[in-house]
Amino acid sequence: MPKNTDFRSQSQFSTTSLDHSGSFVGRKIYWKLYAIENIYRVLIHSILTAQIGSNWWDIAVNPNIQKKAKEFKDDYSKRPWHTTPGNHFIYYAHLSHLNEIIRVNSHLFIELVPDIEEWMVKVETLRLPRNVVAHMNFPNSTDRARIDVLYEDFKNLLSSSSITSKVILQIP
User: Fold this and answer.
1) What is the pLDDT confidence band of residue 1, given thresholds at 50, 70 and 90?
2) Residues 38-46: what's their mean pLDDT?
3) SS3 per-residue string spanning 54-81
4) Number of domains forming the structure of the chain
5) Is the residue at 170 inside a domain?
6) How many CB atoms lie within 10 A of CB 88?
7) Residue 7 lies in a domain
8) Is residue 84 part of a domain?
9) How far apart are CA 84 and CA 120, in angstroms?
C-alpha cells in the first residue's frame, strides 16, 4: 500500500495500512498545521503586545472568547496530570476565535500586515482540513496541498521585513 493512502480506502482492514496512514499524516501534514497555528498565535500575541501591552488579552479580546478560553483552561486545571496547551489564554482559543481577535483589532494589524483580511480568509480555508486531521482523519490531496502552501505562506509572513523590523516576536 502506498504510504499516502487512507487506510479506509482498502477493502480489508490491516493495522499495517492504518500505521502507514497515520505516519503519513503525522510526518507530512500534522506538523505543518502545528506550525501554522503557532505562528498565528505568536503573530497575534507579538503584534498586540507591541500595540497594546502585555495585558492585551484583557483589553482586546471579546469577553465571550475570554470566557470560553477560561473555561477551557479551567478544565485542564481540574486534571493536572494532563499536559496543558500552554500558559497564555491564546493557547485555549480556537482558530475561529483567533480570527475574531484579529478582525476586531484589525486596525492594529493593518500597518504590519496590510493584507490582514486575506490572512484571515487563509486561516478560514484551513479550518476544515485542520479539523479533519485533528479528529484523526485523512485529508484529501487538495487539502494536503492547501496545507503545504499555507505553511510556506505563514513562514514567509512571519519572516517578512514589515513584521521583523517593527515587532519583536514573542512566545505567548
Assistant:
1) very low
2) 96
3) CCHHHHHCCHHHHHHHHHHHHHHHCCCC
4) 1
5) no
6) 15
7) no
8) yes
9) 26
Q: Is residue 172 part of a domain?
A: no
State pLDDT tens for residues 126-158: 999 999 999 999 999 999 999 999 999 999 998
3-state secondary structure of 160: coil
- CA distance linking residue 14 with residue 12, whole number of Å: 6
What is the domain range of residue 157? 12-164
Torsion of CA 75, 80, 86, 89, to 10 degrees: 30
CA atoms within 13 A on the CB side of 55: 2
d(CA 151, CA 119): 12
Q: How far apart are CA 128 and CA 147, in angstroms?
A: 11
Buried/exposed 38-77: b ≥16 CB within 10 Å, e otherwise:
bbbbbbbbbbbbbbeeeebbeebbeeebbebbeebbeeee
